[in-house]
């Protein structure tokens, strides 16, 4: 008998019907992977299970008995724990406090700190995080925070553990470790629901795959049926041909050259790098290796501590993103909600934001230009939106990411820095973004592209830089690319460059 | 909000006919204009997601300095006005720098500003009130024209009210149509409401501000930055500069308002002049649809918000319930905000239902 | 009709001063008092009040401003409404603009106190008391400093006097005695009830007296006119080497304990506003009630044919406002002078009369 | 911050020896206690990321109601106190409900509160001031003990100051050690500073508040929700309830402060009582390290912040520069906040450099 059963659940949001009669069942000790494109409704379904949202219709059964999960506390009572897609931690508290937030061991309302710290270090060890439970959360990298988030779910001793893209900011080693944790949990009889866009991971953890498409069940796969093609077909509804549309590019002149750039924090090692026009360069590394910091420094968000940057032969003083933008050096940031988009503004307004000043005369709004550009970009990048007047918040992740890229395409990039451009977006959208990168490279744009997904950096790069603890550990040509080679550099096993 | 304004006007007019007396209407217009200038200024800051708590103190400081420079250093009024407005704008620059460069919170900075400026105002005035603005009275009181407004005499004379006929004084002209012999044969159906310069100031400032906000890149950037500063910065908006400019606009307009208020009132008492005006300005902006979370706001909304507050106050005056004044004003703001929120929810719910129906139809 | 409410609070707090509760409008004979409006000491409020009243009462004949800043604001409001011919203005206190208005014939007249004398006499008496000398105090423990009535004829002269005082060049008034012993320096305090030009004159009086009596006097004007500020000042003076205090209590009944505490430590007198139930030694100042009646008389002169009158004051919580306004109203309603004000008052009133004529 | 407090004390003591007079110190302690109660209340709200602008008006309303219920309805004082504090707590509930259930902004809600409560206070008092608290004076003024503080007489008598010897009045006891014959043989080296009840109230409230904030689940949740409401909600924290409770704590303490203030001052003038006190309370909390962004704050910090403000004010009075009072207070807050920010930056920079050096060493 299934432990947890979801029957015909529906959920409406203003503008969309996120779930239309979805069903799902999980047996005790089973791990189920839920896959689907962006906006398919995976997270919504999970939030309903965790009591964060309430279903409009449908029923949830636990041990065959219908239950009503009205809030997080109810979910906890029923033994359901959710690791959120977005980080949900308080960075003014320490790690232990975060792990036990909402379920602190207490006597008469007083905290039992000692016990909390003891149990916290236990779960931290389980997830393979070697930090003291009293460390402040603010000092951790995103990856480590994600691990803390996982530890938090483990600490709740749940019967059903739901993981919504837990690996999106984890490195390979940490992912392996997570899989091990999942397997031991499963052996202990805990049910695991696992959501990921990294289809390769799913083989490792899933006993069964449930696919969603547009808020409906689109099929299930038993363990022995799980193949990449099958999953893609269930998610997208058709076969995808060659996944990485990579073709050799003509590398042109050097458009970006950084010499001795010292990045604030993480050691401030001088970094040299060169990018040629029409080249796609991958930037790999473990979590916290400093890729984001490097890209942000090149974009002028962080102050450099020294060194010089030249774009197309001209020295650029990087004081602020404006300087970088003026030089034709653009960044698609890692966190699109916070840094990439003004999510309460419309699609059109977002796309045209960086170009307004250039297109305007005497500071007046260039209304005509705005409209044509927005329409053009929406068409060109196939952004799925009712129109340029739609508030961008209501678009799915992949379409939001396309809009971020459209911002820069509208004003003609020389160098495009992409930081995890496919993080948390679905396979169809990913494919489109890869194609766009291809196109841009052929048009002579230099692309520097950081990603934690091995496959895609290997698949898309002409050349790869691997970072390790704040410095560039080595460079790999396309013919040298392999997971082993990258890992060797990324873990600092060999310090010598392989070129 | 416009509805609220009209409701208040109508209710007051019906029950207190003197409310529509041309002179009273002129007063309301004048006050609305003066407060409106202040409100527009603070709207800019609110749109960037900031706040300015120091407007009242700024008014006092500007008023004191204005008077003192004219009286003590014998500056010509024009120079004195330029000087004090330049000073207030400079203070905005200081605020902006503290907020953007030192990353202090606007609330804290302007709270300190509130105290410091008030202190400076008192020090400037040397403990007594400052006057000597009467020679500039024409800037406020010159009657440059008037507009005919229909029906006023009717309401005013009680035809439309639930009250008894109020005998008008015989020497009051304009209300009655006269026959050739000078006898009253009926009520005029319109009356002239005099117009004073402040409405021009407000109109000019409001139009400029509205253009700035809605038709220029500056305005777009301002809104973007108010909603998500980081994203705006990543898009190449000079966020720091914009914030600084918005504070400068705010304090500059506060300076203008300070000059106008001191001329209008005629004497500036440094310790009480402008007390709580910042709250009125902020309340007007909020009533007018500015969100304190930043990114939203319209100039016409602010003007309407100010008008609501002024009409309300006048109306309270007319009802002779001054003791409850604050309570009524606060209550109306609260009700306005709550109504706004509820209306928004209802609209959202209705739209959701419509969309659901539409979706259903599509799929069927 | 709440605007009045100088009703005494049943808690026996303030609002005393013999004021009865009025239900506006009150009419007696030719005169109708339509409103009594207060503005909490805000000048902008004062002007708004005046403007609103002009609109609200179309048949207003006379407006009375009882705080120093009221008459000028009323004048501006009336001017702007173009009703200078319809509405007569009667003032109180000697604001420069009020005096100018009188000279120009726009304000009918004003009743002034003599704050300079408040300051001067306070220092004179206190320094004598501190040195243990005898001071002539009437039975009633009230020393009246007469008010004066200013009309267009004596306005110019009076204005000149004021300017001289403000410049610190005023001649010292006549001393009560000329055999004061002034060897030992004394330390005094002079506490007013708000910031106002009126009190600047008083301060000038204090400054004028300081060298004469070898006294050093700390003058404090509570900027927001709150009882709290006064309390803080007095508490500080209690721990100081201050030997004598002259104060104008803002809220006499509720400050009783405080004033009595001060009385234990030093010589305390009241000026401007009295606190008779305390142990203060005596009171120097104008009879605010009688001054109010003088204003009432001016109003009667201004509109001999009767009509509607509106009265404007600052803080109705304050005793001087209550006394002045009830003085005006009682005069207009031809009520008798309550006995507690009659003491020593007649003489003072007559003195005022004779001086102004 | 403690440093700032000490600096201000020492500077004042050196240049104005009367500052350390026991009576004056007792005054400062008393005022600090009263303001501190208010500050602690608002700290709770600030920690949740909210704000309460209505404390001053709350004080006025509580004061008026307190007086009126005692005088008019002849309630015994204890009952009256319970009643008004219950009422203020209830108002906190209303705020909390508006903020959490209707999702209104705390700034707007409490701004309306500021106006409404002030209006109600005036209506309650009916235009006159409210008194009759003197019989309860013992709650504030009863001298239950005193502490010896060393060196006071020395400073006081000018030994340590740059000023000349100030001849003390002969009748002032306690300063001098006397010989048997009653002649002065030297200065006592300590003096007794009297203690009044308010310090006990503050101590009790501060201890309870500190325990609540640092040692209980409630406090932990409060901080979490102040920093990241969504995270807290997703973790099963009853965020709405917590926010409501924090507003209730705030207004409850404001009610307590209102009772104490009205007893202490003895008369409540509805239109001015408590004006701007909310700003003092907020400033104290900010000086004490509360972040208006929420999630941070300590009770001892708030108490120190309040003490700074009080000492500063007293010190200003000692220097007789009352006109600059606001300016100095505002300036000190601003300087404090700026210094704090700069210190934080320097520390961060230094740590970064150290870490870099460490890394370098490791890799070398
Ligand atoms: N709070 C919300 N308000 C409005 N719309 C929402 C809300 N949450 C989700 N949606 C919409 O519901 C749909 C389903 O979203 P959901 O987050 O469940 O997708 P998902 O499958 O998790 O996608 P992803 O892979 O990008 O995480 C999307 O179209 C999304 O825009
Ligand atoms: N704002 C910050 N404050 C303090 N430390 C930071 C900050 N941002 C990054 N770091 C630290 O810098 C190091 C590099 O982080 P960075 O985000 O650049 O790594 P990354 O390689 O991009 O990893 P990720 O996969 O998480 O994006 C990490 O150790 C992180 O803790
Ligand atoms: Mg999702
Ligand atoms: Mg990164």
From TrEMBL, chain A:
<keyword id="KW-0762">Sugar transport</keyword>
<keyword id="KW-1278">Translocase</keyword>
<dbReference type="GO" id="GO:0005524">
    <property type="term" value="F:ATP binding"/>
</dbReference>
<feature type="domain" description="ABC transporter">
    <location>
        <begin position="249"/>
        <end position="494"/>
    </location>
</feature>
<dbReference type="Pfam" id="PF00005">
    <property type="entry name" value="ABC_tran"/>
</dbReference>
<keyword id="KW-0472">Membrane</keyword>
<keyword id="KW-0813">Transport</keyword>
<keyword id="KW-0067">ATP-binding</keyword>
<keyword id="KW-1003">Cell membrane</keyword>
<dbReference type="GO" id="GO:0016887">
    <property type="term" value="F:ATP hydrolysis activity"/>
</dbReference>
<dbReference type="GO" id="GO:0005886">
    <property type="term" value="C:plasma membrane"/>
</dbReference>
<keyword id="KW-0547">Nucleotide-binding</keyword>
<dbReference type="InterPro" id="IPR050107">
    <property type="entry name" value="ABC_carbohydrate_import_ATPase"/>
</dbReference>
<feature type="domain" description="ABC transporter">
    <location>
        <begin position="4"/>
        <end position="239"/>
    </location>
</feature>
<dbReference type="InterPro" id="IPR003439">
    <property type="entry name" value="ABC_transporter-like_ATP-bd"/>
</dbReference>
<protein>
    <submittedName>
        <fullName>Sugar ABC transporter ATP-binding protein</fullName>
    </submittedName>
</protein>
<dbReference type="InterPro" id="IPR017871">
    <property type="entry name" value="ABC_transporter-like_CS"/>
</dbReference>
<keyword id="KW-0677">Repeat</keyword>
<dbReference type="InterPro" id="IPR027417">
    <property type="entry name" value="P-loop_NTPase"/>
</dbReference>
<dbReference type="InterPro" id="IPR003593">
    <property type="entry name" value="AAA+_ATPase"/>
</dbReference>
Automatic annotation (TrEMBL), chains B, D:
<keyword id="KW-0812">Transmembrane</keyword>
<dbReference type="InterPro" id="IPR001851">
    <property type="entry name" value="ABC_transp_permease"/>
</dbReference>
<feature type="transmembrane region" description="Helical">
    <location>
        <begin position="239"/>
        <end position="263"/>
    </location>
</feature>
<dbReference type="Pfam" id="PF02653">
    <property type="entry name" value="BPD_transp_2"/>
</dbReference>
<keyword id="KW-1133">Transmembrane helix</keyword>
<keyword id="KW-0472">Membrane</keyword>
<dbReference type="GO" id="GO:0005886">
    <property type="term" value="C:plasma membrane"/>
</dbReference>
<feature type="transmembrane region" description="Helical">
    <location>
        <begin position="326"/>
        <end position="343"/>
    </location>
</feature>
<protein>
    <submittedName>
        <fullName>ABC transporter permease</fullName>
    </submittedName>
</protein>
<feature type="transmembrane region" description="Helical">
    <location>
        <begin position="78"/>
        <end position="100"/>
    </location>
</feature>
<dbReference type="GO" id="GO:0022857">
    <property type="term" value="F:transmembrane transporter activity"/>
</dbReference>
<feature type="transmembrane region" description="Helical">
    <location>
        <begin position="199"/>
        <end position="218"/>
    </location>
</feature>
<keyword id="KW-1003">Cell membrane</keyword>
<feature type="transmembrane region" description="Helical">
    <location>
        <begin position="107"/>
        <end position="125"/>
    </location>
</feature>
<feature type="transmembrane region" description="Helical">
    <location>
        <begin position="54"/>
        <end position="72"/>
    </location>
</feature>
<feature type="transmembrane region" description="Helical">
    <location>
        <begin position="29"/>
        <end position="47"/>
    </location>
</feature>
């Amino acid at each position: 008998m299934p432990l947890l059963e979801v029957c015909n659940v529906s959920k409406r949001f203003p503008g969309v019907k996120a779930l239309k009669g979805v069903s799902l069942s999980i047996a005790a000790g089973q791990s189920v992977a839920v896959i689907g494109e962006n906006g398919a409704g995976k997270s919504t379904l999970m939030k309903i299970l965790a009591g964060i949202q309430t279903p409009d219709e449908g029923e949830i059964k636990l041990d065959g008995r219908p239950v009503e999960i009205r809030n997080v506390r109810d979910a906890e009572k029923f033994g359901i724990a959710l690791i959120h897609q977005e980080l949900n931690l308080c960075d003014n508290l320490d790690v232990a406090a975060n792990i036990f937030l909402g379920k602190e061991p207490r006597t008469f309302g007083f905290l039992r700190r000692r016990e909390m710290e003891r149990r916290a270090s236990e779960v931290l060890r389980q997830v393979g995080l070697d930090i003291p439970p009293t460390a402040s959360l603010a000092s951790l990298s995103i990856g480590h925070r994600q691990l803390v988030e996982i530890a938090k779910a483990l600490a709740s001793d749940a019967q059903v553990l739901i993981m919504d893209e837990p690996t999106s900011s984890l490195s390979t080693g940490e992912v392996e470790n997570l899989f091990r944790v999942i397997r031991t949990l499963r052996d202990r009889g805990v049910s695991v629901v696992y959501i990921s866009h990294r289809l390769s991971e799913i083989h490792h953890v899933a006993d069964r795959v449930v696919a969603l498409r547009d808020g409906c069940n689109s099929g299930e796969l038993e363990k022995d049926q799980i193949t990449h093609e099958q999953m893609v077909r269930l998610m997208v509804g058709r076969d995808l041909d060659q996944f990485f549309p990579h073709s050799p590019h003509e590398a042109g002149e050097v458009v970006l050259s950084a010499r001795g750039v010292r990045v604030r924090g993480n050691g401030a090692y001088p970094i040299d790098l060169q990018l040629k026009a029409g080249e796609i360069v991958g930037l790999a590394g473990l979590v916290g290796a400093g890729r984001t910091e490097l890209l942000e420094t090149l974009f002028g968000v962080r102050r450099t501590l020294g060194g010089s940057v030249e774009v197309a032969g001209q020295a650029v003083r990087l004081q602020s993103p404006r300087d970088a933008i003026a030089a034709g050096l653009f960044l698609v940031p890692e966190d699109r909600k916070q840094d990439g988009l003004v999510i309460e503004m419309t699609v059109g307004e977002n796309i045209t934001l960086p170009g307004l000043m250039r297109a305007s005369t005497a500071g007046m709004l260039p209304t005509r230009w705005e409209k044509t550009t927005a329409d053009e970009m929406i068409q060109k990048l196939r952004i799925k939106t009712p129109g340029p007047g739609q508030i961008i918040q209501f678009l799915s992740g992949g379409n939001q990411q396309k809009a971020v890229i459209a911002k820069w395409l509208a004003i003609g990039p020389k160098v495009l820095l992409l930081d995890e451009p496919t993080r948390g977006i679905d396979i169809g959208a990913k494919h489109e973004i890869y194609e766009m990168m291809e196109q841009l490279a052929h048009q002579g744009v230099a692309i520097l592209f950081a990603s934690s997904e091995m496959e895609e950096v290997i698949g898309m790069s002409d050349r790869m830089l691997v970072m390790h603890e704040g410095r560039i550990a080595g460079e790999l040509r396309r013919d040298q690319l392999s997971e082993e080679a990258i890992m060797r550099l990324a873990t600092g096993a060999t310090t010598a460059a392989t070129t | 909000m416009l509805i609220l304004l009209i409701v208040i006007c109508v209710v007051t007019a019906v029950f207190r006919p003197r409310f529509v007396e041309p002179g009273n209407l002129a007063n309301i217009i004048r006050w609305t204009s003066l407060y409106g200038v202040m409100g527009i200024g603070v709207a800019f800051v609110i749109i960037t997601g900031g706040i300015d708590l120091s407007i009242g103190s700024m008014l006092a400081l500007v008023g004191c300095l204005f008077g003192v420079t004219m009286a003590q250093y014998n500056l010509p009024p024009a120079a004195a006005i330029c000087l004090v407005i330049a000073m207030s704008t400079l203070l905005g620059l200081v605020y902006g720098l503290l907020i953007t460069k030192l990353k202090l919170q606007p609330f804290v900075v302007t709270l300190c500003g509130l105290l410091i400026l008030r202190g400076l105002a008192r020090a400037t005035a040397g403990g007594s009130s400052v006057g000597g603005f009467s020679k500039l009275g024409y800037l406020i009181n010159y009657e440059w024209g008037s507009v005919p407004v229909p029906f006023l005499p009717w309401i005013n004379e009680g035809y439309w009210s639930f009250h008894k006929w109020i005998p008008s004084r015989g020497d009051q002209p304009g209300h009655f149509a006269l026959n050739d012999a000078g006898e009253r044969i009926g009520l005029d159906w319109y009356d002239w409401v005099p117009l004073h310069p402040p409405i021009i100031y407000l109109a000019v400032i409001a139009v400029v501000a509205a253009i700035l906000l809605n038709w220029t890149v500056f305005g777009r950037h301002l809104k973007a930055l108010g909603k998500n500063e980081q994203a705006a910065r990543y898009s190449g908006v000079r966020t720091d500069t914009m914030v600084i400019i918005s504070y400068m606009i705010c304090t500059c307009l506060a300076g203008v308002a300070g000059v106008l208020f001191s001329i209008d009132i005629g004497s500036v008492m440094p310790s009480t002049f402008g007390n709580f005006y910042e709250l009125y300005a902020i309340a007007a902006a909020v009533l007018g649809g500015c969100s304190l979370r930043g990114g939203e706001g319209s100039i016409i909304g602010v003007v309407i918000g100010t008008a609501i507050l002024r009409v309300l106050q006048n109306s309270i005056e007319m009802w002779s319930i001054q003791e409850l004044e604050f309570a009524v004003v606060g209550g109306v703001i609260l009700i306005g905000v709550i109504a706004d929120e509820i209306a928004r929810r209802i609209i959202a719910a209705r739209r959701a239902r419509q969309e659901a129906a539409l979706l259903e139809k599509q799929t069927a | 009709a709440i605007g009045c409410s100088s009703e005494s609070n049943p808690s026996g707090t303030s609002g005393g001063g013999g004021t009865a509760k009025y239900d506006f409008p009150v009419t007696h004979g030719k005169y109708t008092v339509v409103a009594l409006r207060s503005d909490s000491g805000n000048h902008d409020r004062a002007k708004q009040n005046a403007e609103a009243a002009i609109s609200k009462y179309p048949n207003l004949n006379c407006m009375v401003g009882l705080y120093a800043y009221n008459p000028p604001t009323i004048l501006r409001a009336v001017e702007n409404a173009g009703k200078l011919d319809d509405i007569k203005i009667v003032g109180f206190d000697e604001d420069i603009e009020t005096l100018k208005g009188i000279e120009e014939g726009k304000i009918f007249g004003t009743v002034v106190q003599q704050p300079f004398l408040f300051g001067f006499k306070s220092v004179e008496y206190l320094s004598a008391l501190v040195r243990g000398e005898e001071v002539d105090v009437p039975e009633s423990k009230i020393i009246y400093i007469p008010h004066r009535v200013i009309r267009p004829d004596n306005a110019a002269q009076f204005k000149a006097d004021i300017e001289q005082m403000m410049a610190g060049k005023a001649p010292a008034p006549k001393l009560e005695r000329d055999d004061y012993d002034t060897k030992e320096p004394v330390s005094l305090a002079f506490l007013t009830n708000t910031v106002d030009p009126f009190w600047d004159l008083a301060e000038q009086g204090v400054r004028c007296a300081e060298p004469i009596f070898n006294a050093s006097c700390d003058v404090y004007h509570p900027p927001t006119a709150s009882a709290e500020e006064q309390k803080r000042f007095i508490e500080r003076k209690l721990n100081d080497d201050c030997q004598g205090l002259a104060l104008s209590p803002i809220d006499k009944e509720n400050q009783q304990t405080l004033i009595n505490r001060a009385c234990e430590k030093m010589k305390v007198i009241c000026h401007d506003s009295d606190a008779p139930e305390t142990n203060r030694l005596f009171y120097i100042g104008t009879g605010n009630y009688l001054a109010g009646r003088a204003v009432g008389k001016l109003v009667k002169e201004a509109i001999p044919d009767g009509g509607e009158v509106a009265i404007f004051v600052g803080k109705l919580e304050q005793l001087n406002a209550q006394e002045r306004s009830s003085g005006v109203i009682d005069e207009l309603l031809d009520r008798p002078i309550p006995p507690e004000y009659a003491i020593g008052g007649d003489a003072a009133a007559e003195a005022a009369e004779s001086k102004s004529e």
